[in-house]
Each structure stands twice: as C-alpha cells, then as structure tokens.
Amino acid sequence: MKEKVHCFTSFTFSYLARASILVKTLREAHPDWVIWAVVTDEPPGDNDRGLAQVFDQVVYAKELCFERFDRWLFKHDVVEASTAVKGQMLRRLLGEGAQKVVYLDPDIAVFSDLNGIADKLDRFSVILTPHQTQPNRTEGLVKDNEMTSLKYGVFNLGFVAVRNDPVGVEFAEWWASQLYFACYDDVPNGLFTDQKWCDLVPCLFDGVHIERDPGYNVASWNISRREIKITTDGRILAGGSPLKFFHFTKINTAGDIMIEKNARDNVEVRELWNWYRRCLVDAAPAVPKGYWHYDSFDNGVRIPRAARLLFRERADLFEYFENPFSASGDSYFEWLRGNEPTILAAG
C-alpha cells in the first residue's frame, strides 16, 4: 500500500487567502494527501474563518508544546514566528507516525503533481530545493541570485520533504532545536530565519537529496534561468520541465519588482503572476488588514520591534516576565515605560 503523504503549511490569518489557494491547487493534484494548517496566530474575535472546512487538520502554534511559549514567541516578529514553528510541527508529525511529510509555504500554488518528491522519499531522508539550479552569466544577475543566496541561504525553505526514518527524525529534532534557539532575521549575524540553518544539512546528515529539477520552487528571484512557457495544450513549463509549484513571495510588493527585473520578455511569467493576483482577490477572507494576534500588548499597544529585540537579548528580562504580552501590574510593558520609554514611543 502506498504511504500517505502529510503536508503542512504555517501562516497567520492575514495569509489565509494565500493558504487557501495552496490548499485548492494541492488538492487538485493530490486529493489523497492529508493537509495540515499550523496557525501562528489566534482568530480575530471568535471566528476562525472556516479553517476546519479548508484543511484536514488545524493546529495552533500554542498547542505545539513549546517551552515557555509566550516568552519565546514574544522574541519574534510575524515572519520569524511563522517560520520558527516549522521544525516543531515536523517533529510532531513524525512522532505521530506520518511516514512522509512535506512542508509548503502558504504563498505557493501547485500546478502539477509532486509524485516525484513522494517517490524519492522512498530512497532519501531529506529533500531540499536550491534557489538556483544553473549559474547566471551577467554581473547584475549574479548579484541578484548567487550573491543573494550566499547572504540569505542556498536552499528555499518554502519547501522541505522528510522521510520518517532515523535520519529524518534526527534532522527534525535538530531543526526544531535550532529554530527554537534562533530563528531570526539577523543577516549581519549569519541568520535568515530557518534558511541559513539548512545550508548545513548536506554536511550534517546522510540521505539528503538536492532536487535540481527547475520545475520545483520557481520564484521571482530565480526565473532568470527558468523561463516559463505555456504549451498549446495548456501545460506550463519552467526551464523546460513541467512546473510543479510556483512560490509567489511578496506579490504586490517587492516580488513585483523582481518579476519585472527578471522576467524580461517572458510574458508567460506575468500571466502567471496576474493569475495569482486574481486568485487572491477571489479568496480574500474578512480579516482586518495586517492582523496578527501577537502584534500588540494586551492593552492594544503595538509591540515595537525594538521591544522584541531587547527581550531577546536580555536574559534577565526573559526570565523575569512570564507573560511579556501583559501590560498590567508588574509587567514588561510597565518596565519599558519606566526604563526604555523611547522604545514604546517608537511603536
């Protein structure tokens, strides 16, 4: 009997529209896969926007048995937090007996089946996809691609696939531990959330497969060597290979700039980009713009990034304030008011 694949994604309610597009396109390709939501958030009001109708299983980050969850999460911004839970969820799924686990970012859309990945998990323990699969030839493209990979990470951790075997379990334990310790956007100190950690994976673990098929994990920053073509029978190719999934990172913001820069005369890329824009409009849930439950103290005051960084850096503050989101009594909020008022004012 073919082993069932469990696929999970991690997001906040502000990304629910993107996550619903992922689920819709993934179900079309793999109706037999079990799809999990990991929600690093709490619902706006008492409405979870129908998560249980979209996903097979829903897990909130606070349910993942993080040690001192409130204190730990407070140290992260929204992107860091949504990324940091991935290792813990992978460890949970493997621990519960899932034999094959795939992670996909919520801003991905699937265009053809991923059987190649599922089948390779019969032979490999961990599968990663690199940002670049062919070298660029001009100074500008090397700066945008190879040099960016050196800075932010060689592998695109919008995807990872893991087999439930001793190496896969060891990887999950290691990755969960590293992301608990430091999953920060701190490029000057050699970190970019989870990606830089995984530069080490082929060095630390056996059974790692680097999937170089250009049809996987296509994105605005790597289309310079992955030309998109739509055939007369409607198939979409990337670099000559069937497009498996496209990563629509930062659509309507910085991603648009990269598309214009790298697509050049590749009209089909723009058609794909605009298709996803239309899907976002159709899928948009009634969620307050920019909503994140953990964005504010419990009195409604937005938490400045500097307040998170200080709490991250000061072990004495981390140990003393059990719930740094609290703003009443002997709280971190009141401590900031008395000792670092400029930080709160900047928020």
Basic shape:
globular
CATH topology of the largest domain: Spore Coat Polysaccharide Biosynthesis Protein SpsA, Chain A
Strand order of the largest sheet: 3-2-1-4-7-6-10
CATH C-level label of the largest domain: Alpha Beta
Task: Name the structural class.
Answer: alpha/beta
At the fourth level of CATH, the homologous superfamily of the largest domain is Spore Coat Polysaccharide Biosynthesis Protein SpsA, Chain A
What level of helicity do the residues show? Answer: 40-55%
Count of folded domains: 2
Question: Tags for this entry?
Answer:
347 residues; alpha/beta; Spore Coat Polysaccharide Biosynthesis Protein SpsA, Chain A; seven-stranded mixed sheet; 17 helices
Topology:
Layout: E1 5-11, H1 16-29, E2 34-39, H2 51-54, E3 57-60, H3 69-74, H4 78-84, H5 86-95, E4 100-104, E5 108-110, H6 115-120, E6 126-128, H7 139-144, H8 146-152, E7 159-163, H9 166-181, E8 185-186, E9 191-192, H10 195-198, H11 201-204, E10 208-210, E11 218-219, E12 228-230, E13 236-238, E14 241-242, E15 245-247, H12 254-263, H13 267-283, H14 305-313, H15 315-320, H16 332-339, H17 341-346
Parallel strand pairs: 1-2, 1-4, 2-3, 6-10, 11-15
Antiparallel strand pairs: 4-7, 5-15, 6-7, 8-9, 12-13, 13-14
